[in-house]
Amino acid sequence: MAPPEAAPSAANGTEPSLAPTVLEARGVGKRFPGVVALDDVSFTLRAGETHALVGENGAGKSTLIKVLTGVHRPDSGALLLSDRPVHFSRPFEAQQAGISTIYQEVNLVPLMSVARNIFLGREPRTRLRLIDFSRMHAEAATLLDGFGVRVDPRRPLHTLGIGAQQMVALARAVSVRADVVVMDEPTSSLEPREVETLFRVIGDLRRQNIAVVYVSHRMDELYRICDRVTVLRDGRHIHTGDLAALDRMQLVSMMLGRELSEVRRHGTTSFAAEGHDIARKPVLTATGMVRRHQLDDISLELHPGEVLGLGGLLGSGRSETAKALAGALPLEAGRIAVGGAPLERFSSASAIRAGISLLPEDRKAEGIVPGLSVRENIVLAALPRLSRAGIVSRAQQDRVVDIFMKRLRIKASSPEQKVGELSGGNQQKVLLARWLCLEPKVLLLDEPTRGIDVGAKAEVQALIDELAQEGLAVLLISSDIEELVEGSDRIVVLRNGATAGELTGDQVSESELLAVLADHSPDPAPPAAETGATEPTNTEAPATRTVSAGTAVTKTTGTTAHHAHAAQAAHGAEDAEEDLR
Length: 581
Known about the structure:
The protein is of the alpha/beta class. Helices cover about 35% and strands about 20% of the residues. The strands form five sheets. Strands 6-7-8-3-9-10 form a six-stranded mixed β-sheet, sandwiched between helices. Strand 11 (about 285-290) and strand 12 (about 295-300) form a beta hairpin. Helix 8 crosses helix 9 and helix 18 (about 510-515) packs across helix 21. The longest helix is centred in the middle third of the chain and has 16 residues, at about 190-205. The two termini are about 25 Å apart. Mean pLDDT is about 80; it is low at about 1-15 and about 520-580.
């Protein structure tokens, strides 16, 4: 039975099943030293369709896209564009042939203006063959206005936020007047309003009979806008067919290569059903954190063995809070203590020494060093510990790297492979290994599963549970509401840089979280006698309930808790859920 959200996907444009083939790969193979990236892969794209390309990180999606767009030349097989064989030796040739690409990582020129980036290589010219800046700026402004982006086209690109830069990349791709537009994780940096604009643009492309290849790990997006799906696994073609004919569990089963019954049994996240044994005494205490226009008197406690969720919409102050706790964001006021000892002259270095480690939201810009090897990235923060008299022990490095590559199941040809060559999920594991080898007391995770496939996502989620069981204090930030609810023992909800509420025990549910996000107060917690709590309920703050120290907390999902209250907050909660996702 197809999910209801799949129904509208073919509502616009020409019926895809009747449309001619615009792009085809036949038996394509591509090998790199020690790795078979693509093995006899075939792919067919029809005019006017939106075709989902899915698979785990390392399945071959990026390699296939690079073959289709001229970045790589296939070792075997053939490419056909409108039934004519083509051979692309560089991306410019693919673009000239009508194939445009939007990459997950914005690949524009930061120091150039917005307009120059949109028209780079095809600038409008005067009769004297000089660049017609007036015309270029006017056309860029008109184009951006259609995407809801109102910025001065003469402004340098690097002065825009990452979401606005992604919209500029989208505007450039569409303005090329291509027959095929490839979108690789295009919504990873977009706000909900910008996502809706993107979907509207995709609808416009369909009506113009332009084909779209859509790569995303977000199932909601796939079922909303895609007609057909191609599944890759380990560099091989697994399935191509109508997306509406598959439910989500079937699709995940194909991607992972696991039995459908096993996928259904484990559910959509890999967090344990039960909570963790939480110590009574907090390991991290933050009080009165203030930073102008970003944080407004935020206080929180984090206990050993606890996963504390930090919820909120985009711009609510989640990432800023994590960075402040890690010493990466200077505070104007506030106090942070680890193990009861206040930290003076707080900085990133002092936070690391105190046992606080941060996994940043943007692993590309703030995490990995792509030109260094897996080994070098893992031991980067631990070098002072692995050295004597300024000499770093290679044997100790190898021992640490071997331990964490095995524990986190990092897939690489060897520890000397450049980390920039790994899949997104494996890059995330390398970052986790870097901080875990320091044996931190507190681990701050900002969107730890963003942009990674379902298999790697499950492994990271299971690891978070395992670390909490071992006594590590974990702060979890996630825009995935289900992940946040099922992974957290307690949730602090932020709004406009301030604390909007706190959910504990049975209140850790989807309905209660949405209620707080929609500016509704949750129901008062039931008396301790009804819940088995060993500490008294705080009557001065009925929106929260204290977690019993030293006991396991059972987590509930939004499908079973507080239905009546969720109904009262329905309209606001729906808007909040859209923004959160």
